[in-house]
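ok so i was messing around last nite and threw this chain in just to see what happens. nothing serious, just curious
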Amino acid sequence: MNGRYVLSEYMEAAMAAAFYDKLEDGTFSGRIHECAGVVALGKSLRECEEELRSTLEEWILLGLKMGHELPVIAGIDLNAEPTREPVDAL
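result:
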């Protein structure tokens, strides 16, 4: 059974929009413009990407918990009320 995981799709779309810079000291910075405040630093590009993913995840979860309006990314709107499918009694 293949499920559609909206949070995973949202995170992947946001990470695909990430920008990275190599800093003068050889470290890296990463950010996602659509997600204000989602910034990370790392000694390597890989470390920076992992830190950015972790920061993004925490940012999304906190935003959902606090009721903040999150940006629509790749057509995915986490602000919409969830739809619930009826469960049939067996």
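not much to say yet. The chain has a mean pLDDT of 92.
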